[in-house]
Amino acid sequence: MSLLQNGASGLPTVISTAELARGDITVTGPDGYCIDQTTLRSSRSGGFAAMASCNIMSGGTEGAIVEPALVTVTVSAAPDTVPSPADLAAALQTDLLQSRELSALAVGQMATGGENAFAGSDAKHWRGAFVTGDYLVGVTLYAPQGSPLIGAQGAAFLNTVSSNIRAKSRSRSSSASAEQSQSQVDPLAARLGRLFARRDL
Q: Helix or strand or coil: residue 59?
């Protein structure tokens, strides 16, 4: 995964937990998945983080062997309306293949857009969004072609990620902030417009 490479060794710095949005949002992966510290972007009103297999990112020195996947978490100020899977598909200009109402969020399988995530990634991928406190949290799962995470397991995986975020997040009344941060990792970010505050992670 080229975006998760850093330094002369080509290996990123991995961490188990990251705080975004002044510490209001805490991101942690399921067992075996770590956050690439070099992908972190944080502002007073949001942030961005990417996670993948600890074992893969560390070159086999950390974590158990798990299904390869790339998960992105984007945080912004909560809008009046939470975007549905259909809204996300429309913003990405792709077809919504299926959607599921899970305990932590509604998630949708997108027909295209995942093929650019990393070498060998499947075009189909999962996206969802939910509100916790004053923040809208968008989560996306990319997986290799033929991976079980392309199917229903991927939806369940994002539900676990979202459940962890909900459990660890704290509510704080926040005023609108002009401070913004940007990331070029997720190709949908520039198209979300009203769904995720433009350029405001």
A: coil
Write b or e for each residue in 18-49: b if 16 or more Cβ atoms lie within 10 A of its Cβ, otherwise e: bbbbbebbbbbbeebbbbbeebbbbbbbbbbb
Please give the C-alpha separations between residue 43 and each of 54, 96, 131, 156, 190, in angstroms, as whole numbers: 25, 31, 17, 29, 17
Complete domains list, the chain, with CATH: 2-171 (3.40.1000)
Q: Where are the alpha helices (DSSP H) in 40-115?
A: 54-57, 85-92
pLDDT tens for 112-150 read 999 999 999 999 999 999 999 999 999 999 999 999 999
| Residues making up the chain, counted from first to last | 201
State the pairing for strand pair 46-53/70-77.
Answer: antiparallel
Closest CA to 62 of 36, 27, 40, 25: 36
Question: Is residue 92 within 8 Å of 86, Cβ to Cβ?
Answer: no
Tokens of residue 5, six digits: 């490479």
pTM for the model: 0.81
Query: How would you classify residue 114: left for phi > 0, otherwise alpha for psi between -120 and 50, otherwise beta?
Result: alpha
Rounded CA separation 8/19 (Å): 27
